[in-house]
Amino acid sequence: MSNYSIGVDLGGTNLRIAAVDERGNLVEKTTLGTRVALGRDYVVNDMCAAIQQMAEKHKGSGKLLGIGIGVPGIIDMETGMVRESPNLPDWADYPVRGEIERRLGTRVVLENDANSAAFGEKWLGVAKDVDDMAMLTLGTGVGGGLVLDGRIWHGMAGMAAEFGHTTVEPEGALCGCGNRGCLEAYASATAVVRMAREAIASGSAPGLAEAANADVEFSAKAVFNLAIQGDEGARRVFHQVGRALGIVLSDMVNALNLPMYVVGGGVSSAWDAFAPAIFEELRHRSMVYAATAPEPSHGQGASGKVKSMGAKKTIVTRALLGSDAGLYGAARLPQVNGS
Amino acid sequence: MSNYSIGVDLGGTNLRIAAVDERGNLVEKTTLGTRVALGRDYVVNDMCAAIQQMAEKHKGSGKLLGIGIGVPGIIDMETGMVRESPNLPDWADYPVRGEIERRLGTRVVLENDANSAAFGEKWLGVAKDVDDMAMLTLGTGVGGGLVLDGRIWHGMAGMAAEFGHTTVEPEGALCGCGNRGCLEAYASATAVVRMAREAIASGSAPGLAEAANADVEFSAKAVFNLAIQGDEGARRVFHQVGRALGIVLSDMVNALNLPMYVVGGGVSSAWDAFAPAIFEELRHRSMVYAATAPEPSHGQGASGKVKSMGAKKTIVTRALLGSDAGLYGAARLPQVNGS
Hints:
2 copies of one chain form a homodimer. The first copy, chain A, is an alpha/beta fold.
């Protein structure tokens, strides 16, 4: 085995840990429950124990290059602390990097989980052939990651790529961040369920109403299942998802002119239900997309007057690595970030 | 004199040319009318003659490092051609860089005019102490420029930083690009006049109606003059300008987390009339801004729960160089872009 690192995907529900070598081969993967309710120290203990066990097992077969940890929340890259994490409330201002480095005696790199996912897709996933890409991760919330010149773009305080909080509808639905009309309020799993319940309440979605009545845990997945069965109300919900994503992706394409934009996270399994609306918006809203769309038909629409830029195409696509993107990305961090 | 370069700001109305040395000292500046109606060849002839004259004059006092030309439109950086330029319709697909290089026997760098303006503000203006910044140029349209790590971010085809076409209102006013609700449809000089006329038509702006009746060339400047005199209708127009700018700046702050965002161009002289609405939106819509606002009071509002990130502040401010930003930025291009 070549040298390897250990990636951690610290979710609010699952704590996933993987050893990955420098070529991207998965050496070992393990999943624990995240014992959030017991408090931060339990979670750190569980994490450190699992990492130590894994490192012990592979001792001698390669050098451990370090540990990368993807955390849902805002990371202060300089101090190695979690500033804000809705799913891990007692982690704020806790020196997690220093604490884990001390316990394990190896280098630790903290990263926002959506940045890790983007980095994973860039390393081993759908974006492996480009140096510049952005990713939207549609889960309970909507995370974003931005990779420029092959490196995660952090901005000055590690807070960049919060694409989930781009305003889509200035007077729209209230978002968890306090703003109105954020992408997250239209394209997260939470939003899918809310929009389905709104449709039920309006009386316009009998199929959704029936499903919600039959299922106490009425979820985004249930809405998607109805959509693929052709239920009109469920399809309208995913049209709203795609429209919001299309508006934000148009903004991103106009602003950054990257070769690739990736949509991942759990909700992206409904890609077929929302993607048509994405491309509809892109064609009408982004003159940069119109000039760089991969198929001639995408160059039509309102911005069709902008000539094609030849070989340089804008690819908007779904992610490839599923829920492993963040894990692989986290593992990659200590392999590339200095020594 | 140290070595110098020549910058050109090729506008639809004025053709401005300046010799600037490597330290940013203005050596000479001249302004001609752009004889657009006579066709491309006349404009190129005028430009080349003026440049040659200027170069001849300063021969011997320093080396001419090259010529930078800011052009309103989409530039194909690779081929050195203008792809699209509403103000210079017959320039599309004309190999302007090659032609001017051939005539003058020196290096020519073409750049979008809004990118040039951003680069000028970064070199000698309000952003001279930061390496990363974005700029919105409010003129007839709304241009954008993005500087990352001290260099203009072009994206893959030179089309990046089209912030003026960020969607602000998905079903809003029609924009020249074909999309609805772009920033340009709310924050350009054209938009100011349109919104003023809408207010007049609605009967809610007697002051504006009177001014428009008295002035056949009713302009954004006239609306601004009324606003500073306290006219309620005119103030509401600039509130709309600031709101749209604030929404887009919030998106930009969330996406890029840069230390500085600059608002320039002719309409920015109305800064005092629209800036309060910008900061109102920033405080409510950007959690990144809330965590990095320069004054404590800016950390309030919906996103006030995000803790301050300490010394790293997000500055949103007006430009410093006025209409010279693009000229200085264009002159800087051949000084830094290879040799």
